[in-house]
Amino acid sequence: MSHETGSERLERVSAAAFRIRHHALNMGEVQGQGYVGQALGAADMLAAVYSDQLRFRAEDPEWEARDRFLLSTGHYAIGHYAALAEAGIIPVTELETYGSDDSRLPMSGMSTYTPGMEISGGSLGHGLSIAVGMALGLRYQGSGARVYNFLSDGELDEGSTWEAAMGAHHHRLGNLTAMVDINALQADGKTDTVLRTEPVTEKWEAFGWYTQRVDGNDVAALLAAFDNAAAQAAAVGRPSVILCDTKVGRGVPLLEEREKAHFMRIEEHEWQTCREQLTAGSAPAEGETK
Ligand SMILES: Cc1ncc(C[n+]2csc(CCOP(=O)(O)OP(=O)(O)O)c2C)c(N)n1
Ligand SMILES: [Mg+2]
C-alpha cells in the first residue's frame, strides 16, 4: 500500500465501499428488512477506516497490538459485518446468516458473538466512554494502538457522550478518533426535530477536540480528514473527531427517497432493483469517488 498513488488509494477504498454496500443489500434481503439505509450511508466511512486506517490481523482478530474499532451504534451492525467481511475477518459466505437464529451476526452488534466486534453497542451513548477507557488503558500499557469510535448523530442526544468527550480532552487522548455519522435521522424522526444538536462542529471544538466536518460520502474528503487527524494526533496529542454528513441509503436512489428510513422494509421484488441501481451508480470514472 505504501507505493500506491493517491488515485490508486482512492480507487481501492471506493471499491471497498461498493462491496460493503453490495454485501449489505444481500444481507438485508435475507430478512426482507433491516438497517440497510444506515449501512449504505456509512459504507464510505467504514471502507475508509477498515481498508485504509485500521491496523489488524484478519486471521487473529484479538491481536494485542490491533487498533480498536468500537461500534457504539449496535443497530449499524449490518454495515459493520459487511466491513468485517470485506476486511477478511469473517467469511463473506457467513453474511447470509445475518439476523437468523444461531447466527454469529445478530441484528444488533454483540461482542461475544462476532470476531472483530469489540463492544456490544446497542444501548446508545456508551461507546465513547468505553473508547476513552480503552485509549487510556492502551496508553498506560505503552501500546501504540489507536481507538476509533463510530457514533451516530442520535448519540449526541446522550449526556454520557459529552462527559466522555470532556474526559478524552482532559486526558489528552491523542490515540482516540471519533467518527460521527450525521445522517440527520433518528428512530423517531429527523434529528433537528427530535433534539437540535447543531451547531455540532462548534460543540466538539468547545470540548477541546480537533474537529473536522466532511461530506461522509466523499471518500477523498474522508481520507484527507484521517490524514489530518493522524498528523494532529502526533503533533498535539488531543482527540480527533471527524463529523461526517451522510445520506441514508446512499448509492441506491430507490432507498435514498424512502420516508421511513430508520428501519427499512424492502419488498421482495425491489432488492434486485437496489443492486442494479447501486451498480449503475458506481461505475467509477477515472479518479472519481462513488
Ligand atoms: C440508550 C438508548 N436509547 C434508545 C434506544 C432506541 N434506539 C435505537 S436506534 C435509535 C435512534 C438513534 O439515533 P441514530 O443512531 O442517529 O438513528 P439512525 O440514524 O440509525 O436512524 C434509538 C433511539 C437505544 N438503543 N438506546
Ligand atoms: Mg442518525
TrEMBL record:
Where do the Transketolase N-terminal domain residues begin and end? 19-278
**Keywords on this record?**
Thiamine pyrophosphate
Co-factor requirement: thiamine diphosphate
* InterPro entries referenced in this protein's UniProt entry, alphabetically: THDP-binding, Transketolase_N
Going by the entry's taxonomy, the superkingdom of the source organism is recorded as: Bacteria
In terms of SUPFAM superfamilies, this protein maps to: Thiamin diphosphate-binding fold (THDP-binding)
Q: Which CDD domains match?
A: TPP_TK
Q: Which family does it belong to?
A: Belongs to the transketolase family.
The molecule here is called Transketolase
Which species?
Answer: Pseudarthrobacter humi
